[in-house]
């Protein structure tokens, strides 16, 4: 079956309207799509792939995070669609936000991309696989327990014959990854679906489409996929995508050691016998003294002295002294120390 529509008229919609409660307190005031992964933010990776398509692209977000996305969108020449919500309880959800996009931009084929997804495949190849039928990108997580967190897909060739959203007993380890192409006729069914469907998860929409007899196809890919929904997945993405060091203008002690790959932003001070890396992100104007930091992300203006930090995320303007932190998530402005 060959697609006879006009791909050049397709619109790209990047969904970044969630409040990312699973990563709180890190994402309480910072949108997840703008979190750093290496020397870029999550959205940078997505837009690099989108740019290859030459299609009109939009970011869907909420009024609470609009002030973060507005300058980013202007720098990157991308348009914003802003839902009028300020809190998690008010949000439109992914399907509600898709409806708003159709109301503002009109019916069309839409390439929908979750703004917290990092994936290895080319969107050019994905588009080539589109033949006018709903197309979803699927990835084998290789573990039935892990599959329970996602929308689980069963295929016959490339045809989706079963889709279960977060099943208690998954039928496979193939999962939907938050990248979809919905043809115009499917986008026009959103109102019907929303009359009794789950507004937040595209998985339930796909399940509903299957029940309605929609022919849905899958595009399988391998290498890597990260849904940045937890501290673990965020840190794993850093390890995969941080391939070379990026060290800006910093002050560093002759006794300190940097083990690549790392990102150290401008104005940081690495003092005493500190060891930074591998896989560390140190934000602007941080002060790290006599401390070891690896597999971790430290946001700007944080002070860490006489501490060991491993597999942790520490928000901005924190003070940490005389501690060993492992697998920890520390909210902004926290002050934690153990007596000398």
From TrEMBL:
InterPro entries: GMPPB_C, Mannose-1P_guanyltransferase, NTP_transferase_dom, Nucleotide-diphossugar_trans, Trimer_LpxA-like_sf. Transmembrane segments: none annotated. GO terms for molecular function: transferase activity. Signal peptide: none annotated. SUPFAM superfamilies: Nucleotide-diphospho-sugar transferases, Trimeric LpxA-like enzymes. It comes from the Archaea. Residues 11-242 form the Nucleotidyl transferase domain. Residues 258-322 form the Mannose-1-phosphate guanyltransferase C-terminal domain. Pfam families: GMPPB_C, NTP_transferase. Belongs to the transferase hexapeptide repeat family. This is Bifunctional protein GlmU. It comes from Thermococcus onnurineus (strain NA1).
